[in-house]
């Protein structure tokens, strides 16, 4: 793979990843993970408290009981009694967990199973926590111990404690288990969220895709229904019902416009034929001949407007793409330039044309020619004598740009959106002939092709820019039979 | 010359028959699809004028049936549906030309004439001639009274089409469709400008004009 392809692939992955990260379902999954982890954390904390804490309390209770026993001996039999009991207890269980140490005021050990007074923090309540060197074979190791310190008569100090090595080990074990439990919970919640959001996103994307296709005019498309009757299926079914309703309404509109076309155009044809017969009967010399001629011209104008309106309506109704095929815009625009060149020359205008080697799009050749023809027609019509009209085709990797620029009066920025309205005429154009439907037709054709149109300032004049998506070329890139 | 008109609108049919009669064409008439198909299949017609929307049997249905049976009579389809894919559909079904209502009778007449004479015009020719104007299709040269005339490629195609239809009225729409190969509706008289350029080259310096304007219809190349 070359670096550009790697870069593109990385970019695609990035786009896909950010789309998943940005999706609301993924955010919900993240929140779910957070809440679940907190609840599991609280639960595990309680478990920890009730196991490790219980063991701690039990140790303290054992120490407490031992102290009680020793205190009793000390009360009854004094220091000798206490010493005897301590020695007895050490002898009974030399490797046991019980720790005893009797020391003088200088902390010098007098009696017990600790070889010196431990260094450690002595709390106000007499509890001391300290590290204890192993009494077994492995003397380098230290572990935790805990005990209580009492001051006896004669400034003697007594420490009664317990080795809590086993307790510490168990505490670590529990803590480890709980930490791993929490981590696994979080990981599983995240994974579940990812999978869930991916599935949701895929179904949403399917709906998005279909709605885009429908907006482009294919009203027959429907959203697939899974069959499990979940919320998505219900949404899909609802949308599909709505689409069917829209489609039947659109069909109704189309039917009406077809009927108007058939029912109104037929009598208009009749009217016109009658007028033509009348003119033929009157002959060239009859004085009413001129009137008949004018009446025919009026009828013609009426029909032209009527036809243009119907045509726009039918193109706007969309879905009429039977004639869509790969079209190379280069010969098409060249033909257009060639067709309009004499008209421009008559008005002493210079009509220029530039294009790349080819510019394939998917579209209706005749409608594209009609739309571009209307633009060139306007450019030639509104540009004063001696002006410039420039046709230019350029392409990017994805798009074909088709520009018609002129040096005429242009269109003020505020009116640029208005000009596509049916029957709109700018003030300066009222004196020139035209129906005010030319640009409406252009817009309808542009929309049918999923293209965009922009009106820009050519300083001076108007620059119309059409952006079409580049289409696949025909398998054989031969010149079109009609190219000059 | 016999033509069969299949059209459900009686008024349109009456006027068409009357108008066709005045230009010397005999017209038979069928008001619905079934009757039309029977007449077209049995009768010996030079051309058919067929409405697309018919009671009984749809116009394209008739056309497909006729073509499937090997009937090659030229067919001109009339339709109130004027969009491009309707035209494509009509021509795919076997139609030879397609005309959208409302149309000028002169347009229908010119197209019908072109259809009727098409068989003869299709013969391979290397030279076309009218009066003292000659076109050599192999050398791509044009002369009038022996003087060479320089033409642009499109002007050459325009003159060639006019020569092939010499003596017939050719409408502006026919020229756009046949010479430029686009079905479109120009907002201005661009064809007139091209014709006047051509006229400047083949007629201006000569006494007798060959390229005539037919008022309200189109153009005709005619020998003096």
Secondary-structure content class of chain A: alpha+beta
- As an assembly, this protein is heterodimer
Distance between the termini of chain A: 42 Å
State the strand order across the main sheet of chain B: 2-1-3-4-5
What would the CATH topology of the domain at 325-469 in chain A be? Heat Shock Protein 90
The fourth-level CATH homologous superfamily of the domain at 325-469 in chain A is: Histidine kinase-like ATPase, C-terminal domain
Strand content of chain A: 15-25%
Catalogue the unreliable spans of chain B: none
| Poorly predicted parts of chain A | 474-484
Radius of gyration of chain B: 19 Å
* Helix count, DSSP H or I runs of 4 or more residues of chain B: 9
- The CATH architecture of the largest domain in chain B can be given as 3-Layer(aba) Sandwich
Number of domains of chain B: 2
Q: Which bin fits the share of residues in helices of chain A?
A: 55-70%
List the helices and strands and how they pair.
The complex is a heterodimer of chains A (484) and B (224).
Chain A: H1 3-22, H2 24-92, E1 98-103, E2 109-112, E3 120-122, E4 127-133, E5 142-152, E6 156-163, H3 165-215, H4 231-282, H5 289-316, E7 325-328, H6 329-346, E8 350-354, E9 360-363, H7 365-382, E10 388-395, E11 399-406, H8 438-448, E12 452-457, E13 462-469
Parallel strand pairs in A: 8-10
Antiparallel strand pairs in A: 1-2, 1-6, 3-4, 4-5, 5-6, 7-9, 10-11, 11-13, 12-13
Helix pairs in contact in A: 2-3, 4-5, 5-8, 6-7, 7-8
Chain B: E1 2-6, H1 10-22, E2 26-30, H2 33-42, E3 47-51, H3 59-68, E4 75-79, H4 84-92, E5 97-100, H5 105-116, H6 118-121, E6 127-130, E7 133-136, E8 141-144, E9 147-149, H7 153-164, E10 170-171, H8 172-180, H9 190-202, E11 211-214, E12 218-221
Parallel strand pairs in B: 1-2, 1-3, 3-4, 4-5
Antiparallel strand pairs in B: 6-7, 7-8, 8-9, 10-12, 11-12
Helix pairs in contact in B: 2-3, 7-8
């Amino acid at each position: 793979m070359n670096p550009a392809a790697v870069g593109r692939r990385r970019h695609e992955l990035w786009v896909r990843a950010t789309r998943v990260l940005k999706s609301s379902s993924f955010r919900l999954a993240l929140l779910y993970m957070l809440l679940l982890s907190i609840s599991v954390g609280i639960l595990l904390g309680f478990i920890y408290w009730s196991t490790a804490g219980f063991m701690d309390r039990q140790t303290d209770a054992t120490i407490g009981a031992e102290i009680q026993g020793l205190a009793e001996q000390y009360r009854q039999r004094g220091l000798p009694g206490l010493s005897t009991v301590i020695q007895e207890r050490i002898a009974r269980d030399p490797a046991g967990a019980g720790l005893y140490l009797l020391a003088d005021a200088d902390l010098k050990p007098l009696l017990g199973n600790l070889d010196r007074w431990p260094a450690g923090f002595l709390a106000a309540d007499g509890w001391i926590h300290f590290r204890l060197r192993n009494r077994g074979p492995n003397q380098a190791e230290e572990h935790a111990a805990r005990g209580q310190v009492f001051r006896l008569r004669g400034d003697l100090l007594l420490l009664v404690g317990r080795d809590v090595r086993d307790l510490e080990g168990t505490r670590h074990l529990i803590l480890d288990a709980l930490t791993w439990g929490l981590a696994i919970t979080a990981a599983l919640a995240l994974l579940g969220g990812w999978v869930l959001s991916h599935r949701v996103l895929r179904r949403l994307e399917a709906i998005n895709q279909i709605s885009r296709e429908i907006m482009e005019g294919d009203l027959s498309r429907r959203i697939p229904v899974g069959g499990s009757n979940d919320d998505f299926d219900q949404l899909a079914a609802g949308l599909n019902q709505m689409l069917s309703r829209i489609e039947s309404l659109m069909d109704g509109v189309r039917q009406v416009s077809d009927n108007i076309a058939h029912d109104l155009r037929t009598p208009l044809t009749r009217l016109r034929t009658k007028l033509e017969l009348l003119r033929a009967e009157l002959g060239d010399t009859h004085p009413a001949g001129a009137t008949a001629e004018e009446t025919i011209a009026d009828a013609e104008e009426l029909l032209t407007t009527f036809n243009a309106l119907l045509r726009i309506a039918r193109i706007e109704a969309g879905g009429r793409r039977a004639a869509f095929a790969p079209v190379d815009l280069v010969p098409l625009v060249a033909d257009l330039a060639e067709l309009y060149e004499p008209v421009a020359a008559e008005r002493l205008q210079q009509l220029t044309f530039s294009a790349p080697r080819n510019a394939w799009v998917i579209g209706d050749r005749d409608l594209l020619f009609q739309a571009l023809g209307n633009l060139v027609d306007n450019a030639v019509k509104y540009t004063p004598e001696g002006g410039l009209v420039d046709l230019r085709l350029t392409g990017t990797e994805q798009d074909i740009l088709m520009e018609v620029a002129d040096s005429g009066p242009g269109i003020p920025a505020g009116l640029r959106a208005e000009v596509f309205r049916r029957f709109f005429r700018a003030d300066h154009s009222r004196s020139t002939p035209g129906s005010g439907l030319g640009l409406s037709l252009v817009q309808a054709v542009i929309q049918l092709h999923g293209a965009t149109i922009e009106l820009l300032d050519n300083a001076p004049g108007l620059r119309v820019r059409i952006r079409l998506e580049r289409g696949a070329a025909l398998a054989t890139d031969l010149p079109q039979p009609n190219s000059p | 010359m016999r033509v069969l008109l299949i059209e459900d609108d009686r008024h349109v049919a009456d006027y068409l028959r009357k108008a066709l009669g005045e230009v010397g064409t005999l017209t038979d008439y069928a008001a619905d699809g079934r009757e039309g198909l029977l007449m077209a299949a049995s009768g010996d017609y030079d051309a058919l004028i067929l409405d697309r929307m018919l009671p009984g049997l749809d116009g394209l249905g008739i056309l497909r049936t006729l073509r499937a049976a090997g009937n090659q009579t030229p067919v001109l389809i009339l339709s109130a549906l004027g969009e491009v894919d309707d035209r494509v559909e009509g021509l795919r079904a076997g139609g030879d030309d397609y005309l959208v209502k409302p149309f000028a009778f002169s347009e229908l007449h010119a197209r019908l004439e072109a259809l009727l004479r098409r068989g003869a015009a299709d013969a391979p020719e290397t030279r076309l001639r009218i009066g003292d104007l000659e076109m050599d299709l192999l050398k791509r040269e044009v002369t009038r009274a022996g003087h060479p005339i320089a033409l642009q490629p499109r002007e050459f195609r325009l003159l060639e089409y006019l020569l092939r239809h010499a003596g017939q009225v050719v409408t502006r729409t026919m020229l756009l469709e046949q010479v430029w190969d686009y079905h479109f509706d120009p907002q201005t008289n661009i064809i007139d400008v091209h014709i006047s350029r051509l006229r400047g080259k083949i007629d201006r310096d000569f006494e007798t004009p060959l390229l005539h304007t037919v008022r309200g219809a189109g153009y005709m190349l005619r020998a003096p």
